[in-house]
Amino acid sequence: MSDGEASCEVADPQESVPSKETPAISYPVKVLYCPECSLPLEYCEFMPDAVQQRCRAWREKNQDLLSQEGVDIAALNLDDSDSANKKRQKRGGRGNVKAKQKKEPDVVKLARIPRGKRKFVTRVTGLATFDINLKKASKLFAQKFSCGSSVSGDDEIIIQGDVTDDLIDLILETWNEIDEDHIEDLGEVKR
Ligand SMILES: [Zn+2]
Hints:
Layout: H1 2-7, H2 49-61, H3 63-68, H4 81-92, H5 94-101, E1 108-115, E2 119-125, H6 134-145, E3 149-153, E4 156-160, H7 164-174, E5 183-188
Parallel strand pairs: 1-5
Antiparallel strand pairs: 1-2, 2-4, 3-4
The structure holds zinc ion.
Residues 34, 36-37, 39, 44, 47, 55 line the site of zinc ion.
């Protein structure tokens, strides 16, 4: 049990304060260190909120000393905890979520689906993951193959007829961002 405790021990920020730098009144002073978090004063804003609170308290108590040293407290971004919190949220929160939701290009898949005894339709999925406008793509397929073609789902186009081989060529010709490795021919599938 005591082993576990030892390995989980978290350093107390106060313990890590080097005493020789506390409280930064030796002359000549070049960088003022915060005795609470042991960092130069301008880095206090990057400390966890609990530590920042102590940093702020220390500054308030030592305002005279700081202004004597020519430190502009207002410029240190610490005197207003609300704005500091807002900044923190912007940095960590929404941006990351958005990035995760961004779609990565996947694979364009073609499949031949039996329709009746000798007829097939060709299904294309995955074009939308390359940011391709499905309506325009469907129109293009209809023109090139002189057959019906329609957008039939979020990311699915159905072309009337078995055009798989020609379709691969057409896709490679039309969209540079798609190369052969991005196309998978599933062969004949049952819907
Ligand atoms: Zn500090």
